[in-house]
Specification:
The protein has helices at 35-47, 137-142, 150-160, 163-174, 217-243, 264-267, 270-282, 298-303, 338-342, 356-369, 376-389, 396-406; strands spanning 2-8, 15-19, 24-29, 64-69, 77-84, 89-90, 102-106, 112-115, 133-135, 184-185, 201-203, 209-211, 250-255, 288-294, 313-321, 324-330. By secondary structure, it is of the alpha+beta class. Strand 4 (64-69) and strand 5 form a beta hairpin.
Length: 415
C-alpha cells in the first residue's frame, strides 16, 4: 500500500504531501490543479515506470519525490528520488526494489495500465520482460501484444463458458447502476453481412441484446473496467501458479475521474461497488485493496458516507489560493444532502443552484438582507432577479418573502 507521497518543486505547488490510508483515498480539486498528476506520480512511485509522459519539473530548482509503501517485511520501503536534468531522469535505487503488490491504473481517457509483480518485476535473467502493461483506449478493446482485448476475449471466454467469463459476469453484475438495471452478457451475434464473425452483446434492461461496440460511453467505461480487472487478476493468479508463489496480498487501484460518463444513479454506487468487486475477485486469497481515486462528483463523495472510516479512508483536496496550489487532507464528515457537498471545500459553490444567475441573485439578496435600511429600488431589483432565476418551489423563497414582508413590500406577481 502507498503510505506517503511527498513532492518538492515538482507539479503545481512548491510542496505537496499525502499521508494515505489503507482503503480509500479520494482526491478533489478544480481542473488543472494536479489530480491526474498526483495519480501519475503515485503510479511511478509504485512501479518505477510512467503510464504516460514522464513528469518533468520546472527548471532552476532541485526537485524531489519522496514515497513510502508497505512490503512483505517491516518497516515500509522509503525512498527520495531526485530529478537529474542532465540525464532527464528521476533517480532510483540500483538494487531490486521491494514489491508493493499488484498495481492497476485506469486513466480518464479509457487507457489502462497494469504492473504485475509476477510478470513485470525486474530480474537480470529476463531483460526482455515488459516494465508494465500499458493499454491505449483502442488497445483495451482491440488488444495488443499482451492482451486480446475486450471484444476477442469476451467471445472466447463466453464460448468456453470458463471461469474468466463467470468472473467477468459477476464483476459486471456488481458494477451495475442499480438493482433494476443489471448488466450481463447477451447472446453473441453478427451485426451485418460484412462481419468476420459474431460480436459480443449486452442484455439491456429493456430486453434487447445490444452489441458492445454500440454501447453508451458509460457502459463502455464500466465494461472496460470489468474486463481489465478480470484479465489482470486472472493473469496474475496464473503467473503465480507457474512461479509456485502466492498471489499478491495487496492491490493498489488508481482511477482518474471515477465518475466519468456515469449517470448520477451510477455515481452513487461506483466506489462501494469497486471495493466489493476487488474483494470478490481476490476470493480466497483475500488481498487487501487500496483505492486512490480522483473525482469531480459530489455524489461520489456523498456515496461513501455510510462507510467512511478515518482509520482507513481519507479525502485530499487541491485548492488555488493567492495564485498558489495547496493540497490539504480534509476532515470528512457526513453532510447528508448533496447540496451540502456542492458548497463544501471540495467544490466551493456559494449556492447549490443549477445556474450562475440563481447563485448571483441569492448572493445579492443575502447582501441586501444584511443592510439595516434597504432601499425600495434595490428590493424590487433583487426580487426581479430572483423571480427570473429561481424555481417556484425553491426553499429560498421562504426566507426572501419573510424579509420582503418585514419591510412592508408586497410580493409581485411572477412573470
Amino acid at each position: 500500500m502507498l503510505e506517503l507521497l511527498q513532492l518538492k518543486n515538482v507539479g503545481a505547488a512548491a510542496e505537496m504531501k499525502m499521508d494515505l490510508t489503507a482503503r480509500l483515498n479520494l482526491i478533489t480539486g478544480n481542473n488543472g490543479l494536479g489530480k491526474s498528476f498526483l495519480l501519475d506520480v503515485a503510479w511511478w512511485a509504485l512501479t518505477r515506470t510512467w503510464a504516460r509522459e514522464m513528469v518533468v519539473p520546472q527548471p532552476g530548482a532541485d526537485a524531489e519525490i519522496t514515497y513510502k509503501y508497505t512490503k512483505k517485511t517491516k518497516p515500509p520501503y522509503t525512498f527520495t528520488s531526485k530529478y537529474e536534468p542532465d540525464r532527464v531522469r528521476w533517480t532510483v535505487k540500483a538494487s531490486r526494489p521491494p514489491i508493493p503488490g499488484l498495481i492497476l491504473y485506469a486513466q480518464v481517457d479509457g487507457g489502462f495500465s497494469v504492473w504485475d509483480p509476477m510478470r513485470n518485476y525486474w530480474t537480470e535473467d529476463a531483460p526482455d520482460r515488459p516494465n508494465a502493461f500499458l493499454f491505449t483506449p483502442d488497445e483495451v478493446w482491440n488488444g495488443n501484444t499482451h492482451c486480446k482485448g475486450v471484444l476477442e476475449d469476451w467471445l472466447l471466454w463466453q464460448a468456453g463458458n470458463d471461469r474468466r467469463f463467470k468472473l467477468l459476469s459477476q464483476v459486471l453484475d456488481a458494477l451495475s447502476p442499480s438493482a433494476n438495471e443489471k448488466i450481463f452478457p447477451g447472446e453473441q451475434r453478427e451485426i451485418t453481412i460484412l462481419d468476420k464473425g459474431p460480436t459480443p452483446t449486452l442484455r439491456m434492461p429493456y430486453g434487447e441484446d445490444v452489441p458492445l461496440i454500440h454501447a453508451s460511453s458509460g457502459m463502455r467505461r464500466i465494461i472496460a473496467l470489468a474486463y481489465l480487472l478480470t484479465w489482470a487478476w486472472h493473469r496474475h493468479e496464473e503467473a503465480a501458479k507457474l512461479r509456485r508463489e502466492e498471489p499478491a496480498r495487496e492491490i493498489v487501484f488508481l482511477i482518474d475521474e471515477i465518475e466519468c460518463h456515469l449517470h448520477p444513479q451510477w455515481q452513487r454506487r461506483i466506489v462501494p461497488s469497486l471495493l466489493r468487486v476487488m474483494d470478490a475477485l481476490t476470493g480466497e486469497h483475500k488481498a487487501q485493496t487500496q483505492l486512490i481515486a480522483a473525482t469531480h462528483s459530489p455524489l461520489v463523495l456523498g456515496s461513501v458516507e455510510p462507510k467512511f472510516d478515518p482509520k482507513y479512508d481519507s479525502w485530499f483536496d487541491l485548492d488555488l489560493e493567492q495564485k498558489g496550489v495547496i493540497l490539504r487532507k480534509r476532515e470528512y464528515y457526513r453532510r447528508g444532502e448533496i447540496d451540502n457537498w456542492l458548497t463544501s471545500p471540495a467544490f466551493d459553490l456559494k449556492e447549490p443552484r443549477g445556474s450562475i444567475e440563481a447563485e448571483e441573485a441569492i448572493q445579492a439578496a443575502l447582501s441586501l438582507a444584511r443592510q439595516r435600511s434597504p432601499d425600495q429600488k434595490d428590493i424590487d431589483r433583487v426580487d426581479e432577479l430572483l423571480q427570473a432565476s429561481l424555481g417556484d418551489t425553491d426553499r429560498f423563497w421562504v426566507r426572501w418573502t419573510s424579509f420582503r414582508n418585514a419591510h412592508n413590500q408586497p410580493a409581485k406577481a411572477k412573470k
